[in-house]
Specification:
Layout lengths: L16 H9 L4 E4 L8 E5 L2 E5 L12 E4 L4 E2 L1 H13 L8 E3 L4 E2 L2 H11 L12 H9 L12 H13 L1
Parallel strand pairs: 1-4, 4-6, 5-7
Antiparallel strand pairs: 2-3
Helix pairs in contact: 3-4
């Protein structure tokens, strides 16, 4: 039986999970991110090069490790593409290593705007203002745009109209 390790943070997200995941990644065949968004991140130094990752699991630096982004993740396509470009420009191969659930909810510009407007009020809770909370609200209410919605322009248009009407 293969071993599994589950790492869950319980201290508001700043307890060093990224370093722990990076340490253990070399000992496993897969690293999975199951929730969260690009609001958090970790910096990794690999052979004197600096990498800053927010979405892609740090197991990406090991050839034998498959990396998964699960459906519970709020996916910022801009952030994801920046990370892919950063990694590939420094010779890190992602083809065949990175799998992203088509059921991920997408972060939209409106999510960040709602987050920023809320944070500008007196009762701000101290978010990163990137829209993760409002995106999870849409996910929970079953009105979010999923990655697979990008495959069908008619469905995407309908879902966007419904979201705007809300």
């Amino acid at each position: 039986m293969k071993k599994s390790l589950i790492l869950v943070g319980t201290q508001w997200g700043d307890e060093g999970k990224g370093k722990i995941v990076d340490y253990f990644s070399q000992k496993f065949e897969a690293v999975c991110r199951f929730q969260g968004g690009h609001n958090a991140g970790h910096t990794i130094y690999n052979e004197e090069e600096k990498f800053v990752l927010h979405l892609i699991p740090s197991g990406v630096f090991y050839d034998h490790v498959s990396c998964f982004i699960g459906q519970g993740v709020i996916l910022s396509l801009d952030s994801l593409l920046e990370e892919i470009e950063q990694l590939e420009s420094k010779g890190i191969k992602l083809e065949g290593k990175l799998r992203i659930s088509r059921y991920c909810s997408l972060l939209l510009p409106i999510h960040a705007k709602v987050d920023q407007l809320r944070e500008d009020k007196k009762n701000a809770i101290g978010t990163t203002r990137r829209g993760i909370g409002p995106a999870y609200e849409d996910k929970t209410a079953r009105r979010s745009i999923k990655a697979f919605d990008l495959e069908d322009s008619e469905l995407l248009e309908e879902k966007l109209k419904n979201l705007v009407d809300y």
